[in-house]
Amino acid sequence: MRGVVLTGDEGVEVRDFPDPRPGYGEVVVAIRASGICGTDLHIYHAPAAERARRPLVISGHEPCGVVAEIGPGVPEHVVRIGDRVMVHHYLGCGVCDQCRIGYPQQCRKGHVGYGYQAHGGNADYILVGAETLVRLPDGLGFAEGAALACGTGTAYMGLKRLDVSGRDTLVVFGQGPVGLSATILGRAMGARVVAVDVVPERLALARELGADVTIDGSAHDAVETIRDLTRGLGADAAVDCTGNAQARADALRCAGFWGRVCFIGLGGPATFDVSRDIINKQLTVYGSRTFGTVGLEEAARFVVDRRVPLERLITHRFELEAAPEAFARFAAGLPGKSVFAIG
User: Could you tell me the pTM of the whole model?
Assistant: First the structure.
C-alpha cells in the first residue's frame, strides 16, 4: 500500500508499505478520506535530523473509511466488514479511568497516537484497535468524517464546554480549519458569531460559512472592536483556536462579566493579568483537549441532525501522490480544509 511520510525540513514522500493484517482485537480500515490538521505542521517543519531519530510512520490522524478486515477477538456487534467508520486516533490501555470514559489520549499508562507513534491515515489502509472506531452516520461523506475525526470534533467539544446557545455573542479567534468549524457550529447552535483572524481570505470564507461579523486582527484592535459591538459589555463566550499568545490574551480580555473562555489551540506560553482579566470579571475558563469517543459520535450526530453544512469547509481534495503540494498549501495558511480523497 501507499503511505505519506513527513521526513522533516518540509519533506514529504509517498512510500510503499506492506498491507496491514489485523491481530487480536484489531481492524483494518480502507481509507476513503484523511484530513490534514494543524498539529501535522509540527512534524512537517521539524528538522530532518530530529525526525531521523524517531521511527518514520505514516502521517495523518484524521482517518475515515470502510472496515476491510477484522481480526480475532472483535465481537460482531462492535463492527462488521463494510461499516463506514471514523477513527478516534488514540489507543490507550483500555482499563484505566480515562480510557473507560473514552479519553485514551489521557491514558494513565500512556497512549499511542495514530500518525505519530503508529501508522496513520494518509494511506490506502490503516490498522487500528477496534475500540477506536466510531460509526460514520448516514448523510455524512467521508471527507466530513475526516474533518470530524480531529479538527471539527475538537471545535464541537470546546463549544459544548462553553455551553454555547442563542443567548451568546461568541468570538472565535483563528479561522483555520478548527476555527472555521467553530464558526459553522457556533452559528448552528444559535450564537451571534464574531470571527477573528489576520488573513483576509480566511475571513472572507468565515463570512461565507456563517460569521455575523469578521475582524482583521492585523488592522483593528480586536478587543476594542468587540466591546463596541457589544455596547461595552464584552463577549459572552470566546474560544481560541490559534495557540497564539496574543489571541489567547485577547480571548480573556474580550469577555464580559461572567463570561466563558475556552482554549483549544495548542501553543506556547501567554501573558495576561489574572486579577484583571479573570477574577475581577468572574470568568469561567476551560481547557479542552480534542474529545472522547462518545463526543465524536455526538458531534457527528449534531452535524447530521442540524444539517450543518460541513461539506463547505472542505475546499481542497488531493490524491496521495499530490501530498507535497497538499502540505505546502496547508503550511502557507490558505483558507479552508484539505483532505486526501482515496479509493
Answer: 0.96
